[in-house]
């Protein structure tokens, strides 16, 4: 099924005179304007060499000056601002996607060579289209109105003698309109050619793509780390506060001392969590490097973590056979989060009166963390563990350690080994 003629005509009109074609035409006109100083410099060379006194009266001399000026344009394109400026103009006027262009100065020989080729091509095609845009429309307008204004044939416009004949005079408007269409087609074709070649000549090099990929990977690593921090900190706090509040409500009338301790633990937990949340959000706002957000460590807050957990009714037994102060800071921080997540799992799944055993020791230059608790009232093993266990596995893997979790004989066991050798 063929496209109706009116639709094809509209499609052709958009191709030649649509918004994108007009913007690309403007881009070519700017190239022609940039080419003028180089043409003038070329005329200074061509004039004395050819013995000409009126270069602008000779078309061959103008083309010769243009040809001499383009190599000069290629040399000046080596200045650092050229590629960023050209890329910005190409993005807005030629409709090239932003991620297909490079906006930094050309550094390597290959980048400088491609920039020089682009600048020369832009000025060369722009000079030709700009010259046609100045010369063709007035001449085409004269041809279109020539049959109406017969006096134009006798003026000093330099019209060919053929227009004295009736058939040529009748075809003059058609020739004028065809010249305008040809001009629009030439501008649209040159604009499309520049838009097609722009990514190859002004686009990022392999080194730029690699650097961008590394930057994206680093940003993703930061976001993943912050997501783990928020999950472990806020998730544990919400679980602890929920159980502490529940325990306080149940014994409010019978054990006021325990209720006061639970409320004090809620206050302490929320205060610390708000501080950690503010630190993590500060990293997001300021774009700090990974790990700059302050986080608690075994040496700084293990006792406080156990105390706040017990305040919710969970019976926690801790055996610490390692000196928390001797553990490297990075390992100590990650180990704290692992213990925190293990206790959070116990709070959520084992019940608020369950007995939890935490064991921290050094075995074969590894820090071994074990958290055990009952499976809960249903007595059934839990499914995969969700984001918490995945986060523990990620923390251990990034430090070169291993993490295992599973159910056996009615007990859920989490065991993590973190290497101490070579840690800072």
UniProtKB/TrEMBL annotation:
InterPro entries: HATPase_C_sf (IPR036890), Sensor_HK_TwoCompSys (IPR050482), Sig_transdc_His_kin_sub3_dim/P (IPR011712). Gene3D superfamilies: 1.20.5.1930, Histidine kinase-like ATPase, C-terminal domain. Its EC number is 2.7.13.3. It catalyses: ATP + protein L-histidine = ADP + protein N-phospho-L-histidine. GO terms for molecular function: kinase activity. Keywords: ATP-binding, Kinase, Membrane, Nucleotide-binding, Phosphoprotein, Transferase, Transmembrane, Transmembrane helix, Two-component regulatory system. The chain crosses the membrane at residues 21-41, 61-79, 117-146, 166-195. SUPFAM superfamilies: ATPase domain of HSP90 chaperone/DNA topoisomerase II/histidine kinase. Pfam families: HisKA_3. Residues 223-287 form the Signal transduction histidine kinase subgroup 3 dimerisation and phosphoacceptor domain. This is histidine kinase.
């Amino acid at each position: 099924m063929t496209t109706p003629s009116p639709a094809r005509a509209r499609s052709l009109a958009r191709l030649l005179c649509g918004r994108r074609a007009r913007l690309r035409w403007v881009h070519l006109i700017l190239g022609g304007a940039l080419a003028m100083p180089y043409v003038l410099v070329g005329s200074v060379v061509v004039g004395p060499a050819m013995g000409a006194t009126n270069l602008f009266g000779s078309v061959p001399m103008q083309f010769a000056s243009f040809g001499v000026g383009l190599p000069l344009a290629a040399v000046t394109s080596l200045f650092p601002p050229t590629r960023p400026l050209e890329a910005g103009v190409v993005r807005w006027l030629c409709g090239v996607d932003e991620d297909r262009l490079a906006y930094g100065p050309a550094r390597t020989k290959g980048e400088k060579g491609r920039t020089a080729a682009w600048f020369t091509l832009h000025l060369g095609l722009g000079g030709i289209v700009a010259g046609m845009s100045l010369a063709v429309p007035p001449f085409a307008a004269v041809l279109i109105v020539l049959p109406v204004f017969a006096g134009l044939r006798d003026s000093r416009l330099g019209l060919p003698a053929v227009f004295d004949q009736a058939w040529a005079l009748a075809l003059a408007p058609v020739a004028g309109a065809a010249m305008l269409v040809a001009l629009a087609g030439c501008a649209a074709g040159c604009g499309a050619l520049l838009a097609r070649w722009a990514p190859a000549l002004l686009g990022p090099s392999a080194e730029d793509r690699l650097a961008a990929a590394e930057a994206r990977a680093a940003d993703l690593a930061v976001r993943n780390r912050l997501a783990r921090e928020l999950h472990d900190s806020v998730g544990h706090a919400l679980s602890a506060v929920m159980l502490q509040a529940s325990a306080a409500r149940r014994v409010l009338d019978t054990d006021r001392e325990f209720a006061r301790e639970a409320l004090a633990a809620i206050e302490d937990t929320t205060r610390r969590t708000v501080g950690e949340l503010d630190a993590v959000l500060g990293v997001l706002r300021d774009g700090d490097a990974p790990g700059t957000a302050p986080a608690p460590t075994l040496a700084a807050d293990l006792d406080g973590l156990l105390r706040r957990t017990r305040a919710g009714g969970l019976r926690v037994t801790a055996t610490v056979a390692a000196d928390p102060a001797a553990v490297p800071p990075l390992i100590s921080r990650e180990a704290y989060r692992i213990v925190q997540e293990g206790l959070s799992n116990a709070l959520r799944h084992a019940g608020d009166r369950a007995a939890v055993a935490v064991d921290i020791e050094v075995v074969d230059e590894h820090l071994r963390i074990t958290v055990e608790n009952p499976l809960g009232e249903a007595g059934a093993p839990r499914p995969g563990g969700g984001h918490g266990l995945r986060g523990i596995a990620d923390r251990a893997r990034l430090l070169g350690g291993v993490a295992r979790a599973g159910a056996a004989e009615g007990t859920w066991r989490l065991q993590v080994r973190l290497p101490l050798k070579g840690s800072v």
